Amino acid sequence: LNDAQSILKIALKHKPDLVDVAPDAALACGTVDLLKANGFRVFGPTKQAARIEWDKKWSREFMQCHGVPAPAFKYFDDERNARKHAEGIYAENPNALVFVKAAGLCAGKGALKARSLNEALSAIAQMKTFGDAGSVFLIEEGLVGEEFSYYAISDGKTFKVFKSAQDNKTVFDGDKGAQT
Predict the structure, then answer these.
(1) What is the C-alpha separation between 166 and 146, in angstroms, rounded?
(2) pTM
(3) Per residue, what are the HEC states of the chain?
(4) Given 86, 130, 156, 164, which is the most exposed site by the fewest CB atoms within 10 A?
(5) Cα-trace Rg, the chain
(6) pLDDT beneath 50: ranges in the chain
(7) Sign (positive or negative) of CA dihedral 75, 79, 82, 86
(8) What is the C-alpha to C-alpha distance for residues 5 and 91, in angstroms, rounded to an integer?
(9) CA gap 5, 10 in Å, rounded
(10) φ and ψ at residue 104, rounded to 5 degrees
(11) Which tens digits make up the pLDDT trace of 42-77?
(12) Share of the chain above pLDDT 90, in %
């Protein structure tokens, strides 16, 4: 899914009327752009439009710039400064809930919850296991509540809104267990 050329080859072979590109990896590598450039009708955002999903640093800065409510965050590209920041958070509030998040795509595994300094330090150390996706990472305040996805599509003049979908993150009911 992260090879737009291979998807183009399949489309050229089967000549579909419409290609629905939904997986984050396919969007991040520009599959929609490539298919459109080759004359296919495509449902899905361009690489630039999908950046809000595949680049968490950019996404948070975009939200901040445009007044979209989002958790407080700082981003890092080195472990030492991130550790100092985490130590400051937990010195101020030993019961803080934070998330350490890889800025890039990690197949849903790159957001690590921390409820203590030790958990935060462990999560920071794990960022290097995500390769390029974790070379820049965020430490952000943990928000409590339900998460959902909400989609709207537009032709540039009108728009249609779809129903929301629950976005469940943990392996067990009751928000228990590791992230899925």
Answers:
(1) 8
(2) 0.84
(3) CCCHHHHHHHHHHHCCCCEECCCHHHHHCCHHHHHHHCCCCEECCCCCCCHHHHCHHHHHHHHHHCCCCCCCEEEECCHHHHHHHHHHHHHHCCCCCEEEEECCCCCCCCEEEECCHHHHHHHHHHHHHHHHHHCCEEEEECCCCCCEECCEEECCCCEEECCCEECCCEEECCCEEEEC
(4) 156
(5) 19
(6) none
(7) positive
(8) 50
(9) 9
(10) -95, 180
(11) 999 999 999 998 999 999 999 999 999 999 999 999
(12) 75
* Token couple for 131: 């390769």
CA angle 114, 62, 52 (to 5 degrees): 75
Neighbours of 97 (CB within 10 A): 16
The pairing of strands 159-161 and 111-114 is unpaired
